[in-house]
Amino acid sequence: MFFSVSMIKNPNTDESKARTFRSKSPNVVSPGYILAVLLALITCAIPAAAQVKIYIDTDLEGISGVFKFAQTREKDTPLNIQACEYFMGDLAAVIRGLRDGGASEIVVLDGHGSQALIPHLMAPGATYITGLPRPDVLYGLDSSFTGIVMLGFHAMKGTPDGVLNHTQSSQSENRYWYNGVESGELAQSGAIAGYFGVPPILVTGDEATCREAKKFFGNNCVTVAVKKGIGRESAALYPFEETRKALYEGAKQAIAAIPLCKPYSIELPIKVKVQYLDTDTSVPERKLGIKEGIVQDALHILDF
């Protein structure tokens, strides 16, 4: 690159020498000037660091140490309070990993039905959404987010090795099909995020949940298994020190995997089928109900 500069005549300089100097070096540039210009050009060429905004959708059944419904259904029992403490530990590990991986903003949704957030245990570096009711299933999620994390999720209803497996309700035993494909809560959250063009980048839960995530979201979505299911309320558990380390590392990897992750989508319009049991437990045999319909976009897949 050629730089043209003007020379300022020094009245104390011999004119003949100055002319001789100019004739030999018509463009004299100091090393410091060149360095300053180069730095300015480089600075202009590099765009401002991209904002990495992450949404964390959470549940309780797929958290480290949780393996029975007594921990998740009834709010504020000793078992539930303890499970919520486990939840906060897993969440903190993921937030730290996302931050260290390069996330610039994190929003956490308390997605469990009876809520699981314990405010005095909130890790720094995130904003937390909790309490009911809320106007949207994934309140606050929009196209400004770079990726979605699904923390503490569980496998869909009927998964043999899925710890606490269910879809939306473990009491009415719901099952959902979209365009003929049975889907669980992973696919439901993924489809809503996909409406906004936001890809799933990390899923945590048991091994069955991680397997389900790969099926719907592909192999580039990072998964972290914090336990291995044996039955619906039995599992092989791992020490918290090990699961939190894995969650931290998985979260860091998820940030790096963002360019490879794709939003999850369902072909429109969506044909919905829902199967459920009558919740009236007083009758000797609960009736099986079915609802069907069409929705025009993924934001309404839970309208049935």
Feature tags:
304 residues, alpha/beta, Rossmann fold, 6 helices, 21% strand, globular, disordered N terminus
Lay out the secondary structure:
Layout: H1 15-24, H2 31-45, E1 53-58, H3 78-101, E2 105-109, E3 127-129, E4 147-151, E5 175-178, E6 181-183, H4 185-195, E7 200-206, H5 207-217, E8 222-231, E9 234-237, H6 240-257, E10 270-277, E11 288-295
Parallel strand pairs: 1-2, 1-4, 2-3, 4-7, 7-8
Antiparallel strand pairs: 5-6, 5-10, 8-9, 10-11
Describe this structure in words.
With 304 residues, this protein is an alpha/beta fold. It has a domain at 53-165 and 197-262: Rossmann fold, CATH 3.40.50. It contains six helices and eleven strands. The chain has helices at 15-24, 31-45, 78-101, 185-195, 207-217, 240-257, and strands spanning 53-58, 105-109, 127-129, 147-151, 175-178, 181-183, 200-206, 222-231, 234-237, 270-277, 288-295. The strands form two sheets. The chain has a seven-stranded mixed β-sheet with strand order 3-2-1-4-7-8-9, with helices on both faces. A four-stranded antiparallel β-sheet has the order 6-5-10-11. The termini are far apart. Mean pLDDT is 88; it is low at 1-27 and 37-48.
Question: What's the quick description here?
Answer:
The protein has helices at residues 15-24, 31-45, 78-101, 185-195, 207-217, 240-257; strands at 53-58, 105-109, 127-129, 147-151, 175-178, 181-183, 200-206, 222-231, 234-237, 270-277, 288-295.
